[in-house]
Specification:
This protein is α/β, with parallel strands linked by helices. The chain has helices at about 15-30, 60-75, 85-95, 110-115, 120-130, 150-155, 165-170, 185-200, 260-275, 310, 315-325, 350-355, 360-370, 380-385, 385-405; strands at about 5-10, 35, 50-55, 80-85, 105, 135-140, 160-165, 180-185, 205-210, 220-225, 230-245, 255-260, 280-290, 295-300, 335, 340-345, 375. This is ATP-grasp domain-containing protein.
C-alpha cells in the first residue's frame, strides 16, 4: 500500500512553520495535513495543503491529548504523525507522547531531557560541558537595581541583550511593549526591562548576554534530525542574511543561504547524540568576528519556523520522520548538506535592499539565476486556481515592504 494511504500528518499550530511542514508532507507523499490550533492564521488559510480546525484551549495538555485521541479514533486505519509547530505545542506533545493512541507517532524527546535543554541557563551549562561556545551570560532571578547590573557585575560591557530563559513561560505573561528580545544600552535600561518582565508575572530566569557584534548576516541556523535510536541522520546549516524586525517577530529568519561547515556540524552532532536526542533540533548561532568562533544562542526542540530552507535544499523533513518512525527504514549515515540554495520568506526586493552583506546579496542573485531558490509560500500547487490563497499571498508579501521600512534600523 502506498505511504500516502497509510499516514495522516496532524500538525499543532497554524503559522508558517505549520504551513511549510504541511507542504513538505504534500511534496513527499501527496497528502493533505490536518492542523489544530487556538485560532486561525493567514499562513495556513485558504490552503489546499492543510485543513485547519480551531480549538481555543488546545494549549492545555488535557485538551491537546483529547483532540488528538478523538481524531486518531476517527482515523483508526491511519498512522498519525503528530508534530508541534511552536515551542509550547512541542513541549505539550513531549508531556503527552506516552499517552497518545497506538496509531500516533510523536517524534520528541522525554520531558526530562526537555527540561535540561529548554532553559537557556541549563542549556549553557551543558554547552560548558561539551565545549560549545556561547555568549558571555549573566542570569537574573528577579528584579534588580541598576547598581547590581553594572558592567563589572555582569562581566561584560554594555549594550547587552536581555531575554527570558524560558520563552514558553514568557509568552504566557503578556504586557504592553512586549518583545521577543531586548537590547539595553545602560544598567538603568536593563533594570527597567527586568522590572517589566517580572512585573507581568514571569517566574523564571532572565538572561543578560554580551551582545556579539554584527548585523543579521552574522547569524546562522542549523537544523538536525535524530532518529529513534538517537543517531543524527541529517544536518543542514544555513547562513542567515536577514531577519524580521517587528517587536514580536524579532529574530525570525527571513533569508537564508545554505552552507557547509564540518567542524561546527560535527561538534553539534556529537552533542545531540551524547545527550540522547531524538526528532528535530534547531540551533540559533552567531559568528563572533572577535575570535572567529560560532556561538550558540539556544536550541529549539522542534523544526524551526524557517524549516523550508531544509526541504528546499533537497532534504525533505517529512521524509525523515516517516521513513524513520513509520516505515522503520535505516536512514544510513548522517547527511551533512553541502548543496547551496537560497531560501526567503520575504520578497526578493526586500532581501536585496536590506541585507547589509554585499557578498550575501551577490550570492543570492546568482542562485536565483541558477534556479536554486526556494520560498515558503510560493507553492504553485497551492496558488494555481486558488484565488483566495493567491490574494492572501500577494497581500502578505506586500506588507513586508512597510514592515521593514517601519522597523528595520
Amino acid at each position: 500500500m502506498p505511504v500516502s494511504e497509510t499516514i495522516l500528518p496532524v500538525l499543532i499550530g497554524a503559522d508558517m512553520n505549520c504551513y511549510t511542514l504541511a507542504r513538505a508532507f504534500h511534496e513527499a507523499y501527496g497528502v493533505r495535513s490536518y492542523a489544530f490550533g487556538r485560532w486561525a492564521m493567514g499562513d495556513t488559510m485558504y490552503s489546499r495543503l492543510v485543513r485547519f480546525t480551531a480549538v481555543p484551549d488546545i494549549d492545555s495538555a488535557d485538551t491537546l491529548l483529547r483532540t488528538v485521541t478523538d481524531f486518531a479514533a476517527a482515523h483508526a486505519d491511519k498512522t498519525l504523525v503528530v508534530m508541534g509547530c511552536t515551542d509550547d505545542y512541542a513541549s505539550l506533545l513531549m508531556d503527552v507522547r506516552d499517552k497518545l493512541p497506538a496509531n500516533c507517532i510523536a517524534p520528541y524527546i522525554t520531558p526530562e531531557l526537555r527540561d535540561k535543554l529548554v532553559s537557556k541557563a541549563d542549556f549553557y551549562a551543558l554547552c560548558d560541558k561539551y565545549g560549545i561556545p556561547y555568549p558571555k551570560t549573566f542570569c537574573a532571578e528577579g528584579p534588580m537595581d541598576a547598581a547590581a547590573l553594572s558592567p563589572e557585575a555582569l562581566g561584560f560591557a554594555y549594550p547587552v541583550i536581555v531575554k527570558p530563559s524560558s520563552s514558553i513561560l514568557y509568552w504566557k505573561h503578556p504586557f504592553d511593549g512586549m518583545k521577543k528580545v531586548y537590547t539595553a544600552a545602560t544598567p538603568e535600561e536593563a533594570s527597567a526591562i527586568l522590572a517589566q518582565i517580572y512585573g507581568a508575572g514571569y517566574p523564571d530566569i532572565v538572561i543578560l548576554q554580551d551582545r556579539i557584534p554584527g548585523d543579521d548576516s552574522f547569524m546562522h541556523v542549523l537544523t538536525a534530525y535524530c532518529d529513534k535510536n538517537n543517531s543524527v541522520k541529517m544536518m543542514c546549516l544555513g547562513h542567515v542574511g536577514l531577519e524580521e524586525h517587528t517587536p514580536k517577530a524579532l529574530g525570525n529568519h527571513a533569508a537564508i543561504i545554505t552552507e557547509y561547515n564540518e567542524p561546527l556540524m560535527t561538534k553539534l552532532k556529537a552533542f545531540l547524540e551524547d545527550v540522547g536526542y531524538t526528532g528535530f533540533a534547531n540551533f540559533d548561532i552567531k559568528y563572533d568576528s572577535r575570535d572567529g568562533s560560532y556561538r550558540v544562542f539556544e536550541i529549539n526542540l522542534r523544526q524551526g519556523r524557517s524549516n523550508y530552507y531544509v526541504t528546499g535544499a533537497g532534504l525533505n523533513i517529512a521524509r525523515y520522520v516517516v521513513e524513520d518512525r513509520v516505515l522503520g527504514s535505516d536512514l544510513g549515515p548522517c547527511v551533512m548538506n553541502e548543496k547551496e540554495t537560497f531560501w526567503h520568506s520575504v520578497p526578493r526586493a526586500v532581501v536585496y535592499k536590506y541585507v547589509k552583506d554585499p557578498a550575501f546579496v551577490e550570492k543570492a542573485r546568482r542562485l536565483v539565476r541558477e534556479g536554486r531558490e526556494t520560498t515558503s509560500f510560493g507553492c504553485g500547487y497551492d496558488l494555481r486556481w486558488n484565488p483566495r490563497r493567491f490574494a492572501y499571498y500577494l497581500v502578505h508579501m506586500q506588507r513586508y515592504f512597510k514592515k521593514f521600512k517601519t522597523y528595520y534600523k
